[in-house]
Specification:
Blueprint (H helix, E strand, L loop, with lengths): L4 E3 L16 H4 L8 H13 L11 E10 L5 E7 L5 E2 L2 E3 L6 H13 L5 E13 L9 E10 L12 E8 L10 H20 L5
Parallel strand pairs: 2-7
Antiparallel strand pairs: 1-6, 2-5, 3-4, 3-8, 6-7
Length: 204
């Protein structure tokens, strides 16, 4: 197994960075065969596009999102996004921050209202998707996805970015209208989260 680290918000590894190329270190360790072409596109973006961290960059820019698991890795948090009107994981734009683990953890904390979240670095999954309305120039989110662990007993509160937020059992996610990339993220994330917590003797 690759080396994964469980990090808190105040860990020295969560220090900020403004160099787009620095985002690559979250991505390069990912070894999912179906993501190899996606990884190449991420590398090209981070290496060749100096504005990749800015939401104004077109046709694509970096984002960070969090697959938030409960302490037993039995449930995840899904929120119903106010603008997109879909069930999604927490996440948001890099807005100049190349430490995408920091971005994902910040977004997860703000969107769930849960304090004490911890994040597993490096990332667990990648996705590139168009968020532009139909018949308009595409805007691609190059999304770097991380597993995040909530403290035992945590309950999400949500904010204005969602109309609903809830814990969903892993064996019930199939009943939600999630795309294949989201299912892949959840499956990969659960496996990595269990292994990481077991090695840290935090999961029994």
């Amino acid at each position: 197994m690759r080396e994964y680290r469980l990090l808190s918000a105040d860990d020295p590894a969560m220090v900020g960075s403004s160099e787009a190329r620095a985002a690559w270190h979250h991505v390069s360790p990912i070894r999912v065969p179906e993501l190899e072409d996606t990884k190449r596109r991420f590398f090209q973006l981070t290496a060749l596009e100096p504005d990749a961290l800015l939401r104004t960059a077109t046709p694509g820019h970096l984002t960070g999102s969090a697959c938030v698991f409960d302490a037993d890795i039995e449930r995840i948090i899904l929120l119903h996004h106010t603008k997109l009107r879909r069930w999604l994981q927490p996440g948001g734009h890099a807005d100049g921050e190349a430490n995408l683990a920091r971005v994902a953890l910040t977004e997860a904390t703000e969107e769930t209202g849960i304090d004490g979240l911890q994040i597993i670095d490096p990332a667990i999954d990648l996705d590139i998707h168009n968020v532009a309305p139909a018949e308009t120039p595409e805007i691609l989110h190059f999304d770097v996805r991380f597993a995040v662990i909530a403290p035992a007993g945590a309950e999400p509160q949500g904010n204005h970015e969602s109309t609903d937020i809830r814990w969903v059992a892993l064996d019930e996610v199939h009943s939600y209208d999630l795309d294949p990339a989201t299912h892949r993220m959840i499956e990969n994330g659960a496996s990595i989260a269990r292994q990481t917590l077991a090695e840290a003797e935090l999961l029994h």
